[in-house]
Design brief:
Blueprint (H helix, E strand, L loop, with lengths): L5 E2 L1 H6 L6 E5 L11 H8 L6 E2 L22 H10 L7 E5 L8 H10 L5 E4 L2 H7 L29 H6 L7 E3 L3 H4 L17 E2 L6 E2 L2 E2 L2 H12 L8 E3 L5 H11 L6 E2 L3 H5 L12
Parallel strand pairs: 1-5, 2-3, 2-4, 4-5, 6-7, 6-10, 10-11
Antiparallel strand pairs: 8-9
């Protein structure tokens, strides 16, 4: 097993009993659902051996102010959580959610990448694809692990903050927003108190990475994303969204396409508008 971006359901099913495999269920429902809807779905049925990761409790630190709706968790706290899940540097990790990876499998994939963990992949199509392939499920939760904290810290060089964005506002075309087009244009805003986007940003809705709930082929994504980048190298790109979650889905698409080195602005739109002095643009 050496999966670093995506793995399909049949391939994962064939390796399900490998002792080096670790599975994480990251199902989460952002809107119009009970706060623990993902955890409830996990309790009812999940892939054998999978632990559950909650976007709000495990993959974010909601106590941080001004850093958006889903601020990064503390690096040491996240490392301890990985130890509780039995995940160490040598393991092949596969993360899944209900379907396309945006809530919130790609987020956990990215957090592990920030720690330098290479062998982590998202189950392409999530639980929906797993069930369509006839994959095994259980309601039995694994026994708690006794491993120590993951021996690494987040790589800050992969992160961009609001001050970095402000410093580059005069040169557009490098900041890419993964929100839906109507939210980017400021026509609607169902979550955040201010509508619009960062001036100079480009829009690439994360849904455009997908076809029928799964990622498009790598060569197709490479062509589309290269067109978006224009003359810029992937490492010049900074990705954002509403709160730093679906931007991870876009980063996964870049990596799957072989376009390496893009960075994330974790605070994203909700962090940007926490300071009313920062400029806001609307329209295309």
């Amino acid at each position: 097993m050496n999966w670093t971006t995506l793995v399909d359901a049949p391939t994962l099913s064939a390796a399900l009993d490998d002792p080096d495999l670790r599975l994480v269920d990251a199902r989460f429902v952002m809107l119009n659902a009970a706060p623990d809807a993902g955890r409830q779905a996990y309790a009812e049925s999940h892939l054998p051996g999978a632990v559950y990761a909650d976007l709000n409790q495990d993959l974010s630190d909601l106590s941080k102010v001004g850093a958006g709706r889903h601020p990064l968790p503390d690096s040491d706290a996240f490392a301890r959580k990985l130890g509780e899940w039995g995940i160490g540097p040598s393991h092949q990790v596969v993360v899944y959610d209900a379907g396309d990876g945006s809530m919130a499998a790609a987020r956990l994939w990215w957090l592990l990448k920030l720690l330098g963990h290479a062998r982590v992949a998202v189950l392409d199509g999530g639980v929906a694809a797993w069930r369509a392939a006839g994959g095994r499920e259980t309601a039995e939760a694994p026994a708690p692990a006794s491993g120590g904290a993951y021996p690494s810290r987040f790589d800050a060089s992969q992160l961009v903050d609001a001050e970095d964005i402000v410093a580059r506002l005069d040169t557009g075309g490098w900041l890419i927003d993964a929100r839906a087009a109507e939210r980017f244009r400021g026509e609607i805003e169902p979550i955040d108190p201010v509508a619009g986007h960062v001036p100079g940003a480009l829009n690439r809705p994360f849904s455009q990475n997908l076809r029928d709930g799964r990622f498009k082929p790598a060569d197709e994504l490479r062509a589309e994303l290269s067109l978006l980048l224009g003359h810029r190298a992937p490492a010049d790109a900074v990705l954002m969204c509403g709160s730093g979650v679906t931007a991870c889905h876009l980063l996964l698409a870049f990596e799957h396409a072989g376009l390496h080195g893009a960075r994330l602005y974790p605070g994203s739109w909700s962090g940007w508008i926490s300071n009313p002095a920062r400029p806001v643009a609307r329209g295309d």
